[in-house]
Amino acid sequence: EVVLTQSPATLSLSPGERATLSCKASQSVSGYLAWYQQKPGQAPRLLIYDTSNRATGIPARFSGSGPGTDFTLTISSLEPEDFALYYCQHRSNWHLTFGGGTTVEIK
Amino acid sequence: QLQLQESGPGLVKPSETLSLTCTVSGGSISRNDYYWGWIRQPPGKGLEWIGTIYYSGSTYYNPSLKSRVTISVDTSKNQFSLKLNSVTATDTAVYYCAHYDSSGYLDYWGQGTLVTVSS
């Protein structure tokens, strides 16, 4: 079973700054890696799928990258609504694994 | 646009069975490229995949929960359901139902329902 480790646990930044979130997989995931955003009291929202594809309606300031086992979600310039919790997720057929999450908070 | 809504008891006693239903609107649950899933989130913690179902009834379960989980589908009602038996306090969580997109990721989610296991 693939284990996803996200870092840092918390990222303290100011609006307008660049955010870089990491997700490391315990083994190759063949690019099947997604990112979700979750705000308090809400369900997660799909941001990025298959490493680097933005989901429908996701702004261009969100981008994903990563070879092999090291993946990154980048938010190029933080907007007030981007301060939230972010999860990475791997799919293997119809089995899913989630990382532990990174909170992006206002500094 | 798909909409999903979870329903079921918010309080379950230890050792009993947790039962939830997800009602789908805005699309047919039996469309041949649609898969459906259950995910949960204990208070203040991360997301845990529970299982996945196809309209034909094919299921895939988290190995850590497999012995206690049953997911089923009722195409006549456009619903799918979750049963988790022998619950303990560690099963207290917000339970979400969700839809998989064509790439195999979760693009539509219900709002979630909190289930508390307590006597």
Verbal overview:
Chain A is mainly beta and 107 residues long. Chain A contains no helices and eleven strands. Chain A has strands at 4-7, 10-13, 19-25, 33-38, 45-49, 53-54, 62-65, 70-75, 85-92, 95-98, 102-106. In chain A, the strands form two sheets. In chain A, strands 2, 4, 5, 6, 9, 10 and 11 form a seven-stranded mixed sheet that branches. A four-stranded antiparallel sheet of chain A has the order 1-3-8-7, with no helix packed on it. In chain A, β4 and β5 (45-49) form a beta hairpin. Chain A is globular. Chain B is globular. Chain B is 0% helix and 51% strand. In chain B, a hairpin with a 5-residue loop joins β9 and β10 (106-109). Chain B is mainly β and 119 residues long. In chain B, the strands form two sheets. In chain B, strands 2, 4, 5, 6, 9, 10 and 11 form a seven-stranded mixed sheet that branches. In chain B, strands 1-3-8-7 form a four-stranded antiparallel sheet, with no helix packed on it. The chains are: A mainly beta (107), B mainly beta (119). At the A-B interface, β5, β9 and β10 of A face β4, β5, β9 and β10 of B.
User: How many β-strands of chain A, per DSSP?
Assistant: 11
Number of strands of chain B: 11
User: How large is the count of helical segments of chain B?
Assistant: 0
Q: Note the total helix count of chain A.
A: 0
Greatest contact pair?
A-B, 26 and 24 residues
Category by helix and strand content of chain A: mainly beta
Class by helix and strand content of chain B? mainly beta
Order of helices and strands of chain A: EEEEEEEEEEE
Taking Cα atoms only, what radius of gyration of chain B do you get, to the nearest Å? 13 Å
Low-pLDDT parts of chain B are: none
Strand content of chain A: over 45%
